[in-house]
Amino acid sequence: MPKELDLKELGNRLRMVDNHLVTILAQRMELAKQVEEYKREHHESLIRLAVEDQRIESAKALAKTKGLNANFIAAFQYLIMAEACRVEIFQMQDEPELKEQELSPEQLKENLLALTKEIAPLYDQNYGLDFFATRSYLSFEDSVISREIGTLKALGMLDSAIDLGCATGKVSFKLAESFQRVVGYDISPEMIGEARNNLQKAGAPNNIEFKVADIEESIPEESNSVSLVVMSLGTAGDILNLRQALARIKRILKPNGRLILSFYNSSALLYRCWFFPWQVSLAASINQTKHCLDVRLKERVFSIYARPYSVSEIKKLLNQAGFEKPTLSTYPTISAILPNEFFGEESMQNLISDIDHQLAGLESGAYTLAITRKGT
């Protein structure tokens, strides 16, 4: 039955629209910064009155087709453009030197370490919780990991599991519920510090430990010693030399051991559409202009290294590395392109999640989750 439109429900709808309007304006100001960079690089005038006047006239014309007061819309548009000019001027003053559009891998790794140092203490309380598509993906990933744990349990292979890029250890703690030994590795000392704090809060179970390690350099485990390796939440795309990393993972896996890898999907509907006039409901997404990953944390955005892969590229890499029977799914497709304000109602969350699950085999989701195994 549809809800009765009482004042409470109408207030909820007004709140959703108002929130969406604010996020649209935030996106508008982000575009203003990009406009300022372009104008500076190409030595164009910051203020272009003829262009601004035409934009106001276009807004007035559209307002009439929507039954809105054209003068009100013109005033609103003028205020938006005035604020955009203020944003452009402040950026020009604060950043007189243009940033390089494409950052080097070394710079991006430095950004990653700077990001993790800053956010580690608040990571569990903040990262992704405000973004529905990210929460939905984490739930999807969790179900896949549970399924593979069940497979290994049936094979009697619950001795050792490794969580690569473990951050504060959420996946590691899940693995420790089933495996006799779990090790979480991360390049960030601050993330490992938080993971160890979480370990103490959990009563310091003796089957789990956390270590600082750069898996670009080594994975300090014995050959043929691990039943499951997990790289979650797009972590596999953070690796510069993925072929080398896959060889290291294959070395440590036992025969018939499982590997779960999460990538950013270059064929996602999110990236095929190129641009949306709103902020999508993902905490992290590929910046196709700067060729990096933009990670959103509250009001800040950090750019770090990440390479998106297509499903076919991942299959080829896994086959060439000698892994067997790779199966891949992508998720989420629809929620990844919608604004966060779209998901205010639980019924809408459930509906879109159901659709995303049905689309998981169509190679259009924001993340690709690959499950494969080492031969016997």
Task: Give a quick precis of the structure.
GO terms for molecular function: chorismate mutase activity; methyltransferase activity. The chain contains twelve helices and ten strands.
**Unreliable stretches:** none
Give the topology string: H per helix, E per strand.
HHHHHHEHEHEEHEHEEEHEHE
3D shape: elongated
Strand content: 15-25%
Domain Chorismate mutase: 1-92
InterPro entries: Chorismate_II_sf, CM_dom_sf, CM_II_prokaryot, Diverse_substrate_MTase, Methyltranfer_dom, SAM-dependent_MTases_sf
Organism: Candidatus Nealsonbacteria bacterium RIFCSPLOWO2_01_FULL_43_32
GO biological process, one term: methylation
Name a few traits of the molecule.
single chain, 376 residues, alpha/beta, Chorismate Mutase Domain, subunit A, 7-stranded mixed beta sheet, 12 helices, 18% strand
Describe this structure in words.
The chain has 376 residues and is an alpha/beta fold. The chain has two domains: 7-99, Chorismate mutase (Chorismate Mutase Domain, subunit A), CATH 1.20.59; 108-374, Rossmann fold (3-Layer(aba) Sandwich). The protein has helices spanning 7-41, 49-65, 70-94, 105-119, 123-126, 132-154, 170-176, 189-201, 242-252, 269-272, 311-320, 346-358, and strands at 160-164, 181-186, 208-212, 226-231, 253-264, 284-287, 292-297, 300-304, 323-331, 367-374. The strands form two sheets. A seven-stranded mixed beta sheet has the order 3-2-1-4-5-10-9, with helices on both faces. Strand 6 (284-287) and strand 7 (292-297) form a beta hairpin. 34% of the residues are buried. GO terms for molecular function: chorismate mutase activity; methyltransferase activity.
